[in-house]
Amino acid sequence: MAQSVDTGTIPIYQLADLMKMLDNPKITRQSFQILTTTIHNWLKTSSCIESLTLTPRKFLSASSKQVQEIDGSPAQGFFTVLNISKNYTKAQSFHIALFSSIRRWVSRLESYNITKDSMSYPGHGMSRIKSTTLGCKTEDNEEPSEYTEEDTSPVGVDGCDTSIETVLDLFLETLVDYSLRLLSQGERVSKPSDLSLQQAVVSEVIHVLNSVCTLHPDYIDKLLPSVRRTLTRSTNPLHIDVHLSCLSYLLHHCDLSSYHSLLENLLGSRPFIEEHFHDSQFSFDLVRFCLAHLELLSSNGFFASYFPNLMKLLAWNPDQLEEDFRTQLIPVFMNPKTTPEVFHTILDLPCLTAVLLMKRQIVCQLDSRLLFQGHFLPTNLIEMFVNPLNVPLFAYIARQRSGHGDTISKLSRVHELLIPLLRLPRVNATSSLVNPLIQSFFSVLLDYATPNVSTRLIPDILERVILLYETGDHRKSIINTIASRLPDLIQREPASINSYSEEIIEFLSVTRNLEISGELFHSNLIICIGRYASSYFCKQYFDVIECLINEIVFSKGLSASYPRLVSVAASCLAKLSARNLPLIPPARHCLAKLARHIDSCEFHCKPDVASRLCELATLLQDTGPSEMMFNSCSDYDTSDTTAKGFALHAFSSLHQANVDCSN
Questions:
Q1: Strand (E) or helix (H) holding 120
Q2: Helix 349-366 and helix 339-347: axis angle, to 10°?
Q3: How many CB atoms lie within 10 A of CB 436?
């Protein structure tokens, strides 16, 4: 039987202070050796005897008892954190506390450069550090070390002088044996009350072994069979933390091709996420796993294939996972093929939450052992969800893989069916995330995507600004975000205004789209048309914008609502006509007619708008100057100091000021 622990030169009342060394940014070689040696000793020498609880009645008959294994049998070998006792000794309690810090300590060892007689932090020259402190600076640094040569004398495991390398080898060997003992204990059948403890310890052990093999790759072959056996036993989703830790170990130290199918099963091929998205711990562990292997999963196409399935985790846990998805996962979901689908998936996130709520309630109703947490939905909604006509629509919203199907033509039907769930707290919380996620989406798109990839999104934008789930106040902020990014998007590939002229003209020709998408989106789109439309497409754009501006000005319901849009559309007509000279007469006639009508009726900002229309009509009277000004104001040369350059600069400034004043 193991003897009681001998802490050597470290009294038990100083052990708490010793633990503080784990977080000390500066540590001497002596402190490193003392701490490593102490952990080594405590791992294998804690007694397996319970602490005695003495009472006057039992004082004479008290006898020592062994702690138990997790399945209730007497303890075998040395004490571990998976030994169960009613009364732990102080040494055993410290042993348990020490185990919780081992992973952090081994991870810190990875950041040290360790040789036979010296150690340093990364980035410090090894020739500079022989018997000096960790964390000291380079030779050019005047900062003196706060430790003396006396601090750096080595301390051995058994009181003998030992090099750092030897101390580390002894420590790792003991740690590996201890970890294998815990893995064997993890295979025992535990009591239901101890199952979570058993799984948490096994998961922690695998993480520790992962760090050990990174530090000392020679242990990989020895540990691989045990890790594989643990992985095989952890296929139950209740053991997801163990499964992920084993998979993480194998991805770090083995060939990816051997475990490709396991990753596919985890992320989408099997209904892992589909059946356990409601488990917060499951979602947290899986997202942590994805973040830990971000580059590997992204480069091998797992995120591109299964991001719709991963979005279910965010749809059910919006507050907890929002930052992880917004800052790290959404960018890696995007590639040239998936970017449009990611855009649609973000906008449909509240719909996904509503669908998951209905699915979860149905599952709980079928199994009385399950508890549904949330607002119970009326029976008619559940019947609507299982209606064969609606099943394909909801199946697409809750799909597992990307690139399958397109329900854009029936999306309005989906929104209509899900309106009764709009005010549910979880759906409302998810709705508030759409705008930040869209902002992150466009930031990545504009910073990293090629112009061709980014401008391919224009038809999707035109479809979706008028086809959003009714999310109350969040809807307006989403459209404004898209509208503010539209000019930057088109500026990357100005020819896209011509490439997608058919879609843009169809969008502008429907007046109802203006009421849905708002003035800002239409204004920014028309500004881009005025800047970048080629002469070949000027006539088509001129006709649709002329119809739009007449519809606004001569309609009693619209005339008071869009003064800025009237000013922007009038400027666009002038630009298009100057680029295609046969359009100048109809442009002047249109502008003059609009100015007279606005001047004779109640119109918001009437003097400013009427004056603007008159100015534009006047500029179009002389063909030469108007062509020069309207065609050059967006791309004039600021270094041109001639009279023409000065005039273009002045006109451009005046034009921009007028647009700003009309906001």
A1: strand 119-120
A2: 70
A3: 18
CA 386 to CA 637: how far, in whole Å? 63
DSSP symbol at 273: H
pLDDT 10s digits, 534-550: 989 999 999 999 999 99
Query: Can you tell me the distance from the alpha carbon of 574 to that of 587, in angstroms, rounded to the nearest whole number?
Result: 7
Helix, coil or strand: residue 130: coil
Amino acid making up residue 491: Q
> What's the residue count for the chain?
663
For tokens 């006639």, name the residue.
589
Residues 6+ apart with CB under 8 A from 231: 243, 246, 247, 250, 262
Q: Convert the pLDDT of each residue in 358-407 to its tens digit.
A: 988 888 877 666 666 666 778 888 889 889 999 989 999 999 999 875 55
Residue-wise pLDDT for 312-345, tens only, equals 999 999 999 999 999 999 999 999 999 999 999 9
Indicate the helix (H) or strand (E) that contains 576: helix 563-579
Q: Note the Cα 470 to chain centre separation in Å.
A: 25
User: Mean pLDDT over residues 273-281, rounded?
Assistant: 88
DSSP 8-state code for residue 267: I
For residue 663, give both structure tokens: 């906001």
Q: How confident is the model at residue 650 (pLDDT cuts 50, 70, 90)?
A: very low
| Pick from 67, 28, 63, 23: nearest CA to 47 | 67
Contact 135, 145 (CB under 8 A): no
**Would the pLDDT of 155 be above 70?**
no
Q: Find how far residue 339's CA is from the centre of its chain.
A: 15
CA neighbor of 590 nearest in space, from 546, 533, 535, 621: 546
DSSP 449-466: S-HHHHHTTHHHHHHHTT
* Alpha carbon separation from 281 to 24, 288, 623 (Å, rounded): 31, 11, 70
Give pLDDT, residue 86. 80
Most confident of 67-81, 278-292, 643-657: 278-292
Query: What sign has the CA pseudo-torsion 12, 16, 18, 22?
Result: positive
- b/e code 116-138 from CB counts within 10 Å (16+ = b): eebbbeeebeeeebebbbbbbee
Phi, psi of 120 (to 5 degrees): -160, 170
Residue 409, C-beta contacts closer than 8 angstroms, at least 6 positions apart: none
Instruction: Extract long-range pairs of 446-453: CB within 8 Å, 24+ residues apart.
Output: 446/485, 446/488, 446/489, 446/492, 448/331, 449/334, 449/336, 449/339, 450/336, 451/492, 451/493, 452/493, 453/336, 453/339
- CB 73: neighbour CB atoms within 10 A? 10
Question: Which stretches does DSSP call E strand in 136-198?
Answer: none
Long-range contacts of 530-536 (CB under 8 A, 24+ apart): 530/568, 530/571, 530/572, 530/575, 530/576, 531/494, 531/575, 531/634, 532/490, 532/494, 532/495, 532/497, 532/498, 533/497, 533/498, 533/501, 533/576, 533/579, 534/498, 534/579, 535/579, 535/580, 536/498
- Cβ atoms of 449 and 334 closer than 8 Å: yes
How far apart are alpha carbons 225 and 546 in whole angstroms? 75
**What three-state secondary structure class fits 139?**
coil
**208 token code pair:** 């520790």
Residue type, 548: L
Longest distance between any two alpha carbons in the chain, whole Å: 118
What does the alpha-carbon distance between residue 340 and residue 335 come to, in Å, rounded to a whole number? Answer: 9
List Cα–Cα distances, 259 to 230, 253, 265, 494, in angstroms: 15, 11, 10, 45
Rounded to a whole number of angstroms, the distance between the first and last alpha carbons of the chain is 84
3-class DSSP assignment, residue 159: coil
Contact 203, 245 (CB under 8 A): yes
| 372 three-class SS | coil
